[in-house]
Write a structure and sequence with these properties.
Two copies of one chain form a homodimer.
Chain A (H helix, E strand, L loop, with lengths): L3 H10 L6 H15 L12 H8 L3 H13 L3 E4 L3 E4 L3 H4 L19 H6 L5 E2 L12 H14 L14 H15 L8 E4 L1 H13 L5 E6 L3 H9 L3 E6 L7 H11 L3 E4 L13 H14 L2 E5 L24 E5 L12 E4 L4 H12 L5 H11 L3 H24 L14 E5 L6 H10 L2 E2 L1 E2 L12 E5 L5 H17 L1
Parallel strand pairs in A: 3-12, 5-6, 5-7, 7-8, 8-9
Antiparallel strand pairs in A: 1-2, 4-10, 9-10, 11-14, 13-14
Chain lengths: 481, 481
């Protein structure tokens, strides 16, 4: 049985009132009731008071109280206000037959993962590389050396911060490649970029904290921030990059703790933010004390010119945390990511990592290190870029003539496609799943839950034949719905 | 620069007022100030009100306000009450020269990790197996097969829940070995037991929630629960196991969300809770709706009889979550752990895992699977038990005649030793570090921060020679301080 909070929120999400801020206010109220801070028959704070405390519009609080009243969570006394309903304890939290001790804090969901867990033949929801494009045989053979080099690697824990040899190699790579001022001490190895985002959110964000996010963005990051109880504040991203005046106004108004950004071959739009904006954005971050969390998993997957240096390169004061997860196109199964950041933030991240899992397995780090330093890697990347561009072109060929709109990406793994208003993406999604085709509906990438005419098509995971056949079928289904 | 909350708490911890509950109340107050819920010159809640809200003694709140006043965080107006001090923003949170956007929520510390990160020659602080006792050459050789069996393993993500083949194998092992009713669907693979504890705490615990913990216990778990803002409620553990009347009284009084327990070759005491208590404890858990989180990393490391079945075996209602992390003595570098639990809790754990790192690397799971099912494993375990018993006896020989007290453990990796009151463990610890000897001071294993005459000696990590020499030196140093 789902925890009470989630049940209510799931129901609310089905109404047109399901805006993220509205949901968060409901969540906040339910959470305090759940915690026993607001007990049965307690009078709830006035709408004016709660709106002030949460810094939201009074109408949002009013709607939240109304919705909770509709669900039987609160009741109204005329001319007096809202009260906590009795029977709260019985309704969902702790059914005798299940481990109901587990409690809903803030919403625990992962919409992307739910989609990706569905087994389908035409997999366009995963922004991953087709394993057939990786040099598997070479890698499997090469990797055996690692066991000869480090015969005790399976018996040894890594340090929490990450293997010293790997951190030395990567910091020297970053210095050479991007002219970053960076030492091995300022790198922390995590198990994938997602762990990095989750750890950083855990350090930085608390309930009702504002966090800037691109609109659209990587939906799992949104779910991580929602889980922390944070308020999502959307920042537009277009083929021209950010609107820095908008960003400044948002920073001034919401005092966000951080801005989660994916500015290079952006997921899902493919946009790369120009160099001139990078420098200015770092200045804004300093001025408004907003940590920039730069997620950079697609940097090497460019089709034309190499992208500009990371935001981290423009930062002198420690306001950028740089998440570099190139294991995605080297050996994704290893889950190796490097986070560059300054002290004292680095110290906190190491402690958070020590509590989370006490360090990424040494084996994975050593295998990654040796493949990464092999001459084979550069050749692999050159070939991979070409293969991905071919994939992208196949997808674009199949979409040509549909009337669908997209900006051709200069890199990355996705097409961000707008369908005509006449097509319901939700209905198309349901039809596609029935025919074993998966993509990501745009709405889950939108912090506001809109963008209902958009979808994300990942062209990197399916092989060329499956890609062509699947997208052709997808466009046929779109004509039908 | 440390976040403000931690600085204050570090200072407070040095006073004799540093009881955990007191610290938590301070933390709670600082946290609300940090969040801006209580702003500069706001009047703080009355002692009576806050004590009621937090369900603590008024004296504890009084002491917390006094301590915060001493530190300049709050000020007093006579006959009016306590107020938030100005200057709060300037003092520590966001120095211009650092990524001060990161904020102290609840205390972010890991005392054990801090100790273990010190490089020493005589390593008795790590409850790990000496890599020399693992069949490294066999394992390194054997593992190469995995790459032949799964040539694309480095290019493939695992499912979030964990590899199906591994879950089938492990669930069948648990059914056979412990007569557990368990399907592969009810197993979730995590990267080590610590990740499991951290994910479960994230699902179950919120600020000021009570959590039962053994006294003493695994200190990293305490740090994880503190981080969640939970209240630690200690449960005694002795050679006879638990005092079930005490446990019931605590469950009745504090309504804990969960009980984190390590009932088999308990860390650090080595105690194994008898079978009869296991059944009764599960009944208590059902009655008081308290989730039992059973951490079981030392089960196979017994010296005499095999220990009784896990608590999970007695549970029919889903009140036990079973964390089985036997990779510690199979191939610790892989970090493979299996969590057994019922739905809907399992579903929440999978979602939490999907947000945390999107699944444990497939490579590690496949290597573990193939070693685990090899005939070599059973022989390895038999030899390892003997080797550990020899280690334990060496440690005991060297401690004989010191007047130190311990209960000889029937399994596990640690001795829990009480020194005479005349010896200061803190001073001994400092002396030992200076001579490159590390152990775990008992106080960090105690949720109350007491047990200052105790220490934990792990006899499993150093080889026999280093073990003997180091412990001999340790006892000499103890005579000196």
């Amino acid at each position: 049985m789902a925890p009470r909070g989630m049940t209510v929120l799931a129901r609310l999400a089905e109404t047109e009132q399901g805006s993220p801020l509205f949901r968060q206010v409901c969540d906040y109220i339910l959470n305090r009731m759940e915690r026993g801070e607001w007990q049965v028959h307690d009078k709830l704070p006035s709408i004016r008071l709660l709106a002030g405390e949460l810094q939201v519009h009074r109408l949002t609080v009013f709607k939240a109280y109304r919705a909770l009243a509709d669900c039987g969570r609160v009741y109204v006394k005329d001319k007096s206000g809202y009260y906590v309903s009795p029977g709260l304890r019985d309704e969902g939290a702790a059914p005798a037959s299940a481990a109901g001790a587990a409690v809903a804090t803030y919403a625990l969901t992962n919409a992307m993962s739910d989609i990706q867990r569905l087994p389908v033949e035409y997999q366009f929801s995963q922004a991953l590389i087709d394993p057939g494009l990786l040099p598997n045989l070479f890698l499997s053979d090469y990797v055996k050396k690692v066991f000869d080099l480090y015969p005790k690697v399976l018996g040894t824990y890594s340090s929490v911060q990450g293997d010293g040899e790997l951190r030395e190699t990567l910091s020297s790579h970053f210095r050479r490649r991007h002219k970053l001022q960076l030492t091995a001490e300022e790198l922390i190895i995590t198990s994938g970029a997602q762990q990095a985002i989750n750890l950083i959110a855990g350090i930085v964000l608390g309930p009702m904290d504002a966090v800037l996010v691109e609109r659209p963005t990587y939906s799992v990051a949104l779910d991580i921030f929602r889980r922390a109880g944070a308020r999502l504040v959307p920042v537009s991203i277009t083929p021209e990059g950010y609107d820095l005046e908008e960003v400044e106004a948002l920073m001034r108004r919401y005092k966000p703790r951080m801005f989660y950004m994916n500015p290079t071959h952006h997921n899902p739009t493919g946009v790369t933010v120009p160099a001139v904006q990078r420098k200015q954005m770092v200045e804004l971050a300093e001025r408004y004390r907003c940590l920039l969390v730069e997620d950079d998993p697609f940097r090497d997957m460019y089709f034309g010119a190499e992208p500009p240096p990371p935001f981290f390169a423009y930062d002198t004061e420690g306001w950028v945390v740089y998440i570099s997860s190139f294991s995605k196109y080297v050996a994704p199964g290893l889950r190796i990511c490097a986070v560059a950041c300054r002290y004292p933030f680095a110290e906190r991240l190491i402690t958070a990592k020590s509590l989370a899992d006490n360090g990424t397995p040494l084996l994975n780090q050593k295998i990654f290190l040796h493949y990464y330093t092999s001459p084979r890697l550069q050749r692999h990347l050159d070939k991979l870029r070409i293969a991905l561009q071919v994939h992208k072109e196949i997808a674009e060929e199949e979409l040509a003539g549909t009337g669908w709109e997209w900006t051709p990406p200069q890199g990355g793994l996705n097409l961000w496609v707008k369908l005509p208003e006449t097509v319901s993406v939700d209905r198309l999604f349901a039809r596609c799943l029935a025919e074993s085709i998966a993509f990501v509906p745009g709405a889950i990438c939108d912090p506001l839950g809109g963008m209902t005419s958009w979808l994300r098509l990942s062209y990197s995971f399916a092989n060329e034949h499956v890609l062509r056949t699947g997208i052709r079928r997808l466009t046929e289904l779109a004509r039908e719905v």
